[in-house]
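Re: weekly structure request thread

Next one in the queue (360 aa):
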Amino acid sequence: MMRQVIRGLVLFGVLTAVVGSAVQAQTVPDQVTVRDRKDGSTKTYSGVFTLGPAGFQVLGTDKKVVATVNPDDVVKVAIGELPGVERTVILSLNAKEEKKDYAGAQAGYKDLLAKAAGAPERSKRYLQYKTLVNYNRVVDELDPDKGWKEKAEDVAKAWRGYLGDYPSGWEVWPAVRSYTRVQVELGKFDEAARAWEKLAANKELPPDAKVEAQLQQIDLNIRGKVYSNAALAAAELLKTATGARKERLIIYELAAKANGDPKQSLDAVEKIKAEMDKTKDASVHATGFSMMGEMYLVGGKARDAMWSFLWVETVLNQDRDEAFKAVSRLAVMFETNKDVADEDQARKYHEKLKRVRTSF
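Done, posted below.
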C-alpha cells in the first residue's frame, strides 16, 4: 500500500513538472504589431494571438482581450515561446529574416519542424507557416526568366497543402493572402477565388473578416470570368451591406452581370462611372477603376484598360491589394497584349511587382 502511495506521489510530481514546464514554455507573450489605417502609426500588443468567432484577438495571461484587430492591419507577429520548440533558435531565425536571409530562415524553420514531431499543433502550425513564408519570399525575389513561374507554382501547391492541413489559427488569414497573391500572378484567378470562398465558410472566422473574404471571392471570380458565381454572391451580400462595402458590391454586380459580353462590358463601364460619381470613398474608386479595367479588357479596349489600371497603381495605391492586382495586370499586358506591348514597360512593371510583393 505504502509503495503505491509513493509511486502515486512520484507520478504526481512528474506530471506536475511536465505541466509546469509546458506552462513555462508559453510564458513569453506574442508581440503583435498593428498599423493604424488613418495615420499609418503602429502599436504593439502583448499576449497570445488567437482566432475565433469573436475576431483576431490578443489575449492576456488572464485570458481577457487585450485587443481585437483587423488581420490585414497586422504588420508583424513576433511569436512568444512555443511548446516543444527552442526559443533561442526562433530568435536566431528572426534575425535571419531581419537580414533578409530568407533561404537561411526557410531551412531553419524546416529543420525545427522536422524536430517538432511531438510538439502541439499550435507549434507545428506556426513552424510550417514560417517555413512557407520564407520560401515564398525566396520565390518573390526571382525574375520571370530565372525560374519564377515553376517555383511560384511549387509554393502555391505548398500553401494549398498547408491550408488543407491547418484550417484554423490566426495564420490562416495571411496564408490565404499569400497563396492567392501567387495564384493571381500566375493568372489562376479561379483557384484564388475558391480559396477565399473556403475561408469565408470557416466557422472560426469573425463576421467582418467573412465579408471581406466574400468580397475577395467576388472580385477574383470576375477577373477569372466566373461571372455567374460573382453575380449571385454580390446580390446576396447586397441584402445586408451598408456604406462603402455596399457601393463596392454594386460595382461588382454591374461588372458580373455584363457576363463577359464585349458590348455589355463596355456598357457596364459607363454604369460603373455613374456609381463612382456618387461617392468620394477611395476604396470604392479603387474597385471601380479596377473593374473598369477588367471590362475594357473584355471589350477589346486594351489601352483604356491600361489607363484604368495605371490610375489604381499611381493614384489609388493606398489599397495595397488593388494596387498589387493592377501592377500584376500591367506587367502581363505590357508583355503580351499586342495593343500596348512595350518591352521597357514590361521590364519596369515586373520590377515594380517584386517591390509590391513585399507589402504582403
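The beta strands are 30-35, 42-52, 55-59, 65-69, 74-78. Confidence is low (pLDDT under 50) at residues 1-26.
Next request, please.
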